[in-house]
């Protein structure tokens, strides 16, 4: 059973609005009859231009097209994706279709869609249901659409980011089993979690028209490949509980994903987001990075290099000692809250920066999150603080003024991922590493669909595939590898062609 | 006599268009009767919000308001400014008005205006004539408007950036003297330089209605304070030629300007511009920085810290040796043109990256300029290259495809300053250093207007004022200075309160 | 059976010398009757002073004394150590004795002993057999002495670095079993490996006087804790072969060892060694770092930060891509051998820089190894190159001149670990991390000696002990950790007090 | 008149000892009859080997030998040098002799001589009077010897560092004039400054045997070239007072000196000195750098890059703002004295770290000076502190323990330049820049000796010579310059072949 606390906790006032709001969401169709729902189809040309630029920066994906395209390995495969609908994801989608797949897609975050990317893909390649600034209700409607392959059935495979598509199927199956057994339907009011209420509502409403929809889905499903820490955590919990319904490949823990996307991606996109949202000079400022995992390491490096003095908060003494070795100060948030100018959460935990912290900050201190959910920052506490005033400078850049001091803090992207909300997320090159892992994972699941190689468990990609992903990205950067001699390979007991490291190697 | 080659050389095709184009430029008026011409007055509220944010980041300017505001030292002074009409400049303008001045303003670059800043100032504080994306003809019309104080006369003081306002007056006076003496009016066709043709046209047309306009201006003018290297160079040329018509303060060579704005400003705004324009991952790429002066040093530092391998081109062996000491490679452009991914010009010279270089570059190599004029990059050669195809990805981001190879280069901001064209220029804090120098220079000129202290020469601010500018920016960053004892001050032969360094000290 | 190729391959000419050389090695005794053999007992006071300084820098070890000293957990334990006899090791040894142990020690490298450290420990705390510049024959004599606890028997525990003490016991037991079964003694001439010949000689000679020495040792032995990659590799091979005779704890793969000592230790001690040996300016030079594992990462960071341009050679595409993300060039040695100034091997493999490479290098190129064995550099090829001339600038700094070009390369520490040979190895603080792992591993083995918890296998320390080691080093650096709330700990499913990360986490 | 406070203030207890001490200093002679006094002539071979290594690293000096050697421009010139007698200086001396000069040399610091360098030069090339660890009395004896060219007269030229040779001549001339006029001899007891007492004693004693020695010297002297800030300051004072007796070239303020030697030299040699003296791990430590001029910038960069958190103290707001832009904290020493681990003075002022600061420091805090005189640190206050205990760990590394707390601080090089005292000073390459300026300055003075070009004033080298020095160092580092076209040179109004920058350019 999935822990509902892992669901996105959006802000209190918005929930009430959403639930009261009646939607009129209609699927549209291209001239070729493919379904979609995007913001503005006229942006498709612009999207196409940026996709073409991104292709040059994504050598791993383009190599997959060259290597696998001719044999059409995905022929017959229906793939549903739930992953930020950006330009980079567009190149991923068109790699899947270039290999023969049919694809339906939604975003895994209400703010992360790039509308021109969505338009280009919807027009040219796949069924897309995504736009920047969805409500939570719209968000789950899109997810449902992306999973709905109609009478022919599907999907065969899922590309997931955060695990929401996987969650919907698991909750759907659970409800259908209960319904079959007892006739009971899910009760949204049984939970306090507003987003989970939406999930239950969707499932309840579906039960009336088709009480076997998710059961059929699960029976057909070959597997899921999951992109992030949070989604992976859910999968391992389900594996531990014995409730996982199909095989899963943990793409997040490929070295070429977690040690690249999380680290180098954030090193790039944190300052990008800060600069686009606030134009603030980073040099000379005091920054606090909450958490010194891969994301925190990337953020701290970026801020330090830009001339900021960086303070790290950590719970883990090992990560804390790493921060110290880089010349960073390690202190609790309480000790520095009134001195710093920029606060970044990267923990993957909740309740990191609370409204009581924000009240003590300097005027116009910047508060943002690049970890995962918006509950790293106490948005609910901020929004419901008596007398607080919200001044929207521009979309995703809000100044919140406290009545007592008349000073304010600047919160980015409403506490959600600021690099996706205020900028364009990670750059193409590093996403090519992550997404090449996705393609390889999908290929592996599909190739082994009938062999029983993958049980209802969570797997990581074998190291030689991880190394292959890296190798596909070297040529673009002008690198040449050294080759082991047979003698040298024997000496260190590895095959000449790799893999070169033991599984526990930390890079 | 000013060297017309120093004028902005815009692209060939655009010139033809501009000259053929008939304008309908009308001055508008606020409800209080103040003149303006901006893009969209409805952006004034947004501009105001960003101005308020910027104020917190510009302690030098805000300290001037506190220190000098009560005594209204600019009472009666009419100031014309020709300087990028950005949010930061808005804070400068409102500092001048807070000290009692009346102000008219235009931008010194056709792409650099932030329209919301222009709107807020036009509505609230000063006469503004500026918008993003002016034609050259519009540009000079705006300059003329900013200098035109009507029957009462003016300006008393000029804030200049690049020297265009100063140029117009000098050329105007020259023409009026010639006209008085010989009855001859300027002949635009006497020059090949398209922009200079516009200048001569404006002056010629003005002569008909008022043959003493610029002469009266020059007689009234107390002086100019100049912001940049290029403008300063013009001033020193005029001083050497004996043609300088009024005193000038060289703000550019204040340490707190050239060693901050140029260096730390570009370190911030180069990656900002690259990321906004192209979203390209800088890590892993090979970059070429042409020129290793202050601007080049800032750019190279930013690129290196972002994980790029940086190659520098230099003519000056001392700067080249500095680059080497930082681990950068120093090679001529020819040696690396086909290997690099990102090219940045910072030289202040012309003809740095020619179309023949661009033809040899990798597909989608990025070419941009953060030096000064767009002639650092051979835009004319590119635009007139037979069969070349221009694909505008988005405004200020163009892909130019060569027919022979079908590969292209991505040129930012049409070869003009990419940090202003593709991003928002330097951040507020570093501009506060530059602009506080401007305020202090203007105060100095105005205070000494009748004392004869300043002759028709170029001056730099005395070191104690330079140090004062720095001091005003320390508190915001939490710094505390050490104080010399009397004994220590005597030991190193400086006053306790400074200045602390000899004039030739290099910082 | 241990692969003899893993043994130290010393230089050819020295072998011949050593074998021809007759030794007169006599054990000496302190006034209290403790055995020792060191270079110069008069350096004991100097050693003591430096030990006292090091104690302040080794908070992990000193905390162990405070926490465990009173209960004397090692009471009755006889510990043999084979690990570089440096000042830092002295603090380790005296931590073991402070916890109740009796200790005998030898170095694990012929060049790494600091003679003043050896003298201080020999005088004050433990039986030491070590000096800087041992011959290989002396080296193995020292190892034998350290293992020889006399009639009372011992050791109970081994602290090993590289696995030589463990090797001697395993080979000894094998020979004794063979001898008992067949009466055959080991034949040194059965191997080409000169060092292994010495091992067999020692064992053969011992068999005559006591044919059960190593068998009794193995029966008594509670276990070994091993410090380095190479020793760990040997242990895993023996585990795989089923020949491991006692439990082993792999200290090397504690995060607080491999990600600190290897990375930050080398970042410190590589430039230290370069500067002490050659005084060469690192800024401006081109460096080649062979291998980009933890050691290579530390070296490359140090060289880059000192202003060198760094090129990396790699076989592993993942590590290569990491290097690229840091702005380093990745090329094979062949491509850069004639352009670089400094060459550093960090691979843990053999035959990295061959004499044919060295012939092509620039005059006075520096060649050194900080990986492990001196066979990373082709010392034998160099020494036997026809007409080559060796000019010893000072001990451990040799210029080798090739007859053809009359140019030379400068080889440090005869190809052995240059940070230990030319400088003083890693600094105390980072060694405190490594050695606190050793103390904790020894405590764990000893505590569980009768419980059967540890079988004849290789173990790593549990993560909570790894985290504890880190925690003990934070206070010295002024760091304060953040504490999880119960709610937060539950949210991410970890105990409040840790461990905080899954086993596969890469840091 | 020279300010005696500028003289080296040595420690109190040593003064008393020195004055009470009777010396027996005898000049020795080589087989060729050249005078010398060095520590150990048997080190000459070792010195020669290191000189040969250094030659490869000093391309500027070697280029001078190639360019000027054949024409023997110094033929007939007698040059006295007072400058740290190191390996690098040896290459300078042999460049002067290679160009035809005859040379006598002493060191300008009692600790900075490298005895093997002194021996090699004494044996092979020039008259040397220098050893590591001179008393002050010995120091001035050496200076006197270096100036004494015997009956033939001399020197013609002086190479000075700190100005002591220049001082002795000026004081000597003053005394001789007074003596001629009034018969009065200098009275050492007229000053409290112990070192100045020694100077007066030497002059007084000389007056008896030759009352015109310094007068003849001054009449013959063509000029001096001065190496450092302190010496230059003395020269400008004498110029201002009208007491300068001969022309002086200020080498210190060549860009290729002050922006290289001071900055990059210290970036190299500060960590070198720290590591050799204390082996302390720099990563993780808190460092305080007092002063953020060129030396401070180099030190702060080195410490930051090694992983230390760096705090800067400054009196100058401009330098303070520069530190902030690099992410460094700026605070007064008082605020951080009890938290930091490493303290470095770089101010060129006195009384920076007082004994009262040291009493409050953490146990084993490291205190050192890389600025200039040992009075940056309050050595006298420390030595005379009641009950303080000095424990010499090794030469130049002392632990001073305070009675009250029984904690101590570690003071390097007795408060003198720690990079020269504890390590080997700046590396050859950067010294090649400085010393090539010296050679060029000496050539210039000698060439113009009869032209009257140089008056009794202080000059800096013209920029084209500064650029030439840089250019001579590019090839060694593999750099290639870009060449200006005629058109480009005209555009920016510089000659094609340089100089490229205006005199006030700051680099």
UniProtKB/TrEMBL annotation, chains A, B, C, D:
Stored PANTHER family: ADENOSYLHOMOCYSTEINASE, ADENOSYLHOMOCYSTEINASE 1
* NCBIfam families in alphabetical order: ahcY, PRK05476.2-3
- Recite the UniProt keywords alphabetically: Hydrolase, NAD, One-carbon metabolism
Tell me yes or no: is Hydrolase among this UniProt entry's keywords: yes
Q: Which positions bind substrate? A: 86, 161, 227, 257, 261
Protein family (similarity comment) = Belongs to the adenosylhomocysteinase family.
- What GO terms in the biological process aspect are recorded for it? one-carbon metabolic process
Q: Which cofactor does it need?
A: NAD(+)
Reaction it catalyzes: S-adenosyl-L-homocysteine + H2O = L-homocysteine + adenosine
Which SUPFAM superfamilies does this UniProt record tie to the protein? Answer: Formate/glycerate dehydrogenase catalytic domain-like, NAD(P)-binding Rossmann-fold domains
Is this entry keyworded Transmembrane?
Answer: no
- Copy out the cofactor comment: Binds 1 NAD(+) per subunit.
Q: Which organism is it from?
A: Forsythia ovata
Annotated GO MF terms: adenosylhomocysteinase activity
Pathway assigned to this chain's UniProt record: Amino-acid biosynthesis; L-homocysteine biosynthesis; L-homocysteine from S-adenosyl-L-homocysteine: step 1/1
Binding annotation for NAD(+): 228-230, 293-298, 314, 370-372, 419, 426
Protein name in the entry: Adenosylhomocysteinase
Name of the top EC class for this enzyme: hydrolase
- What is the top-level taxon of the source organism? Eukaryota
User: S-adenosyl-L-homocysteine hydrolase NAD binding domain location, by residue?
Assistant: 262-425
What is the role of the protein in this entry? Adenosylhomocysteine is a competitive inhibitor of S-adenosyl-L-methionine-dependent methyl transferase reactions; therefore adenosylhomocysteinase may play a key role in the control of methylations via regulation of the intracellular concentration of adenosylhomocysteine.
Q: What EC number(s) does its UniProt record assign?
A: 3.13.2.1
